[in-house]
Amino acid sequence: MRAMLALMWLLHWLPLPILGRIGKAIGSLLFILLRRRRHIALTNLRLCLPELGDQERLQIARAHFQGYARSVLERGILWWASPERLRKLIQIVPAVPTAAAAARPTIFLCPHFVCLEVAGVAITMAGPACSMYTPQHNRVFDEALRRGRLRFTPDERNLIARRAGIKPIIRAMRDGRPFLMLPDMDFGHRESVFVPFFGVPAATLTAPARLTMATDGQVIPVVTRFLPNYEGWQVIFYPPWDDYPGTDVDAATARMNAFIEARILEAPSEYFWSHKRFKTRPEGMAGVYDSPAD
């Protein structure tokens, strides 16, 4: 892992078009080699985008692997490049809403697009924010990840351990530190409800709705994109959601999924398809990720 981090540090000096193309080539190779992950991605695409043909879904899955590999290599720029270089590479639309986030407890809702780490950099370069953190098994990588995420806001309170629960998040939001939340992974039945995701029942966290209720807060969605021609990244902030969450947590959670679906359709290959989004199934429904035949 030390060698991998050293390589990432060396590569981050390259111009982004060169680094991005290296990442894309690695992603093409991983698409061939990581058979199990390829199967998961194609299964998700088959369930979510059944209107597409097999070849179209195959192209999206390959582009997803390419984009994900790019994002891993390009993370070196986020961790070590100068703030001046980052400002040139990150296009923020329309601007980081720091004043709105300081005025009211705020969740920055950031779906799992492959370059989502850019959103954290854009936000913390403008002001304090906190996020949930899962310690990594490898100590060296864990330390590098922590330093990278705390680079512009070095207060250790801004990384909240998942095992700490919801209370530190509520305190942070009430103290004026917005919570950068990744809402669309399958964490099992706990604190989740089954709501449609592209028409498929998906175990979905109710935490965005419940945190907003608990803090009388607001949700501001933020979505990341690759800029064309390896020019950098775009971070798009949407207006705060009106009348959210209301009184119906299930309806609020379904509304969140509908928003994420719409953003995925704008850039399908950049969504994190290789995650087992439908790992948890409603009672009586069969699993969808059976191993592909040898």
List the helices and strands and how they pair.
Elements: H1 2-11, H2 16-33, H3 35-48, H4 54-80, H5 83-89, E1 90-93, H6 98-103, E2 106-109, H7 117-126, E3 130-133, H8 139-149, E4 159-161, H9 167-174, E5 179-181, E6 192-197, E7 200-205, H10 207-215, E8 218-226, E9 233-237, H11 249-266
Parallel strand pairs: 1-9, 2-5, 2-8, 3-4, 3-5
Antiparallel strand pairs: 6-7, 8-9
Helix pairs in contact: 1-4, 2-4, 3-4
Please characterize this protein's 3D structure.
The protein has helices spanning 2-11, 16-33, 35-48, 54-80, 83-89, 98-103, 117-126, 139-149, 167-174, 207-215, 249-266; strands spanning 90-93, 106-109, 130-133, 159-161, 179-181, 192-197, 200-205, 218-226, 233-237. It is α/β, with parallel strands linked by helices and 294 residues long. The protein has one domain. Helix 1 crosses helix 4 (54-80), helix 2 (16-33) crosses helix 4 and helix 3 packs across helix 4 (54-80). The radius of gyration is 19 Å and the shape is globular. The two termini are 31 Å apart. The model has no long low-confidence stretch (mean pLDDT 95).
